[in-house]
Amino acid sequence: MIASLPNLKSLDNLPIRNIDKERATGIFYQYFEYLPYRWKSKESVLSILHKREIKSGRIKVQSSKRSPSHPHGTSQHFYTRSLSAAKLGSSTWPFLHPLSLSGFESDKGFRPRQFEYHPSDSSLMVFGTLDGEVVVINHESERIVSYIPSLGAMNSVLGLCWLKKYPSKLIAGSDNGTLKLYDINHIPRQITGLYGNSACVTFDEFDSLTSVHVNSTDELFLASGYSRNVALYDINSGKRLQVFTDMHHGHINVVKFANHSPSIFATSSFDQDVKMWDLRQKPVNPCFTASSSRGNVMVCFSPDDQYILASAVDNEVRQFMAVDGRLHLVFDIAPTKSCQNYTRSYYMNGRDYIISGSCDEHIVRICCAQTGRRLRDISLEGKSLGSSMFVQSLRGDPFRDFNMSVLAAYVRPGSKSEIVKVVKADSRVQKKFSWRGEPTLCVPQINLLASSDHAKGDSDAHPVCPSHIMGA
């Protein structure tokens, strides 16, 4: 509404004064972005490509101050960002695409609980289910690559992490404490439950697990859970090296290694603290402690390790300097006043933007990571009129600017969660899919809003998710 006000003559039969238009314009540019990377007017993709070819260097980021994250007009990064801004500016609606899996021998429906993009293969994604399964898929062709059934007691897969130097391997952890390393090259696509010893390594259990993460050299990984402890494992030997005790006053929901420093890691806890640790210093005392006003749901590093992003309950999202824990930015996202509105946030487009969503809301917010200004609010609408999908988790696509996937749940009892890809709209025939059955043609229901902090579904309802509090 506030974005449209300067172009209106009247509203509800009342004339709009010039002072109202000026105030609306000022508020919009203070809190919102019209286009990515501070562009104030649209430019065509062809025009940008033409200027790149002739190396004119005349494309300008139209802002009063040049941010270090927006490089000069002759760099490759500048043209990449310019093309992203042009493409997003030409897209009126994003495309909501729930994944469907083909080529599966069984008429089986999955109940996804956690997922991760592959760090080096743009086509791959892994998801874990509430039933303890681990499924690797090609999310572009929507075909299963590897299927790992649940073995033993029922459990939910809450921790997943790919290895970087060994792209066929991943760590999976379940809430019953099970920790395994899988090699998908030795695991069949069919539901057999049979694979050789080379396909799986079992580690010592970590009770009530919620999070796992591998370091940058693929030598170590950490596990945290519904406790104040963190366990360190050696991947090569398959042994647990150490358990660090009482690292927080509350349980540690998420642990993350830095992307480039193999000994640096961060923890987030419901005791309201985020802490940075260094394995070289035998983590007894943290490098620093940064605090939120509410319990922290998760933490992650920016891709270049310059910042850490902390998400606390009910839309409290803060960015800290990774070098010393100084507060860099508070994202202005309105709270819902719910103590069960668990918020998760991740970086997108490198460290240029963040995406944030909460389990009591059907909104995914895209914010500039340098200014905090809101670029878009994406409203997830369900399959039937009036039904909303609530955000359980989300990830930015590491290979495609302004693309993401969202793990969403319907508020209706008995409804299954879905992994929904959100991509820039194109001219293709749009299809609606679910986790089972054949695709049917329909119009995807998704709204792109200027702002919707107060737009919420049934305020007393919560998505059906037994473990929405845990994990990233």
Automatic annotation (TrEMBL):
Residue ranges crossing the lipid bilayer per the database entry: none
InterPro entries: DHU1, WD40/YVTN_repeat-like_dom_sf, WD40_repeat_dom_sf, WD40_rpt
Top-level taxon of origin: Eukaryota
Family matches, as Pfam families: WD40 (PF00400)
Any one cellular-component term (Gene Ontology): Cul4-RING E3 ubiquitin ligase complex
Keyword Acetylation on entry: no
Any single GO BP term: cellular response to UV-B
Keywords: WD repeat
WD repeat ranges per the UniProt record: 245-280
PANTHER family for this protein: BNAC09G30780D PROTEIN, PROTEIN DWD HYPERSENSITIVE TO UV-B 1
Protein name per the record: Transducin/WD-like repeat-protein
